[in-house]
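Lecture notes, continued. The same structure-token format from the folding unit now serves as the input rather than the output. Read the line below as a description of shape only.
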């Protein structure tokens, strides 16, 4: 996503996103208690285009979250390289939405969403450093995720689904080149989860940010993504990458289509095969 200034000085949302390139990426963890090494990921090759939405699925323990953390530069891979745009993962602007809401309890919804924008506003030579511009950008994102009217509420005063909407808005507030999502809807009830899947379809298309979405839910992956990456059991390797041909955003009835059913069966067999 890209933020541009309107003629009145307020921020408006544009589209954008960076290419993501993983070349022979591997991750090994040493186990101090027994001196052994655990290989979590091995030989990961993956090219993701700007603005693409890619979901990652695989059996439990295959390294999905580890892969996401490597892309976020939370730790370096033990082998291979990760590039974002013309630079490295460490130098990229990355928004991260975790499984559990991670809002600051002492900040309102508006001030939580504005937090990343406030940090960026301190960057020298930026034109959007004023408090008015920061608040306008936060308000725009609140409207994007459907939280109008809840700007002055604190996290404990809103539902879990609303908290995750606020989390998403806060991640988008930094104009990320990459948006990384680690099972963000898994703790929600089925109805709220479905509502947020529909909303994420709309938001992802409108924002245009390159998105990597980790989930255990095969149907969710197919419904949301342009492509689904299936990892093998540990050590995680790319077993297959499947395209979801119907353009995003997709209507809810897509989930009863022949295409959806065929893809779900194919992915299920890949995830559960040895």
């Amino acid at each position: 996503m890209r933020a541009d200034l309107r003629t009145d000085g307020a921020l408006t949302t544009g589209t954008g996103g960076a290419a993501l390139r993983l070349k022979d990426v591997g991750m090994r963890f040493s186990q101090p208690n027994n001196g052994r090494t655990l290989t979590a990921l091995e030989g990961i090759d993956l090219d993701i285009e700007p603005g693409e939405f890619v979901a990652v699925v695989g059996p439990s323990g295959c390294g999905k979250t580890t892969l996401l953390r490597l892309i976020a530069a939370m730790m370096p891979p033990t082998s291979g390289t990760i590039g974002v745009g013309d630079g490295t993962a460490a130098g990229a602007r990355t928004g991260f939405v975790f499984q559990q809401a991670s809002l600051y309890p002492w900040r309102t919804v508006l001030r939580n969403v504005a937090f990343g924008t406030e940090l960026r506003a301190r960057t020298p030579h930026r034109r959007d450093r004023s408090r008015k511009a920061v608040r306008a950008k936060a308000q725009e994102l609140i409207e994007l995720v459907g939280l109008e009217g809840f700007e002055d509420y604190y996290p404990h005063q809103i539902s879990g689904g609303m908290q995750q909407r606020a989390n998403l808005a806060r991640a988008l507030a930094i104009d990320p080149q990459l948006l990384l999502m680690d099972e963000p809807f898994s703790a929600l009830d089925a109805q709220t989860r479905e509502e947020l899947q529909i909303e994420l379809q709309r938001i992802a298309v409108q924002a245009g940010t390159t998105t990597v979405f980790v989930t255990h839910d095969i149907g969710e992956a197919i419904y949301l993504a342009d492509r689904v990456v299936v990892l093998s059991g540990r050590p995680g390797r790319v077993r297959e990458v499947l395209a979801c041909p119907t353009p995003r955003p997709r209507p809810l009835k897509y989930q009863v289509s022949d295409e959806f059913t065929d893809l779900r069966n194919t992915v299920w067999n890949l995830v559960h095969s040895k």
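Point for the exam: DSSP finds seven helices and twelve strands in the chain.
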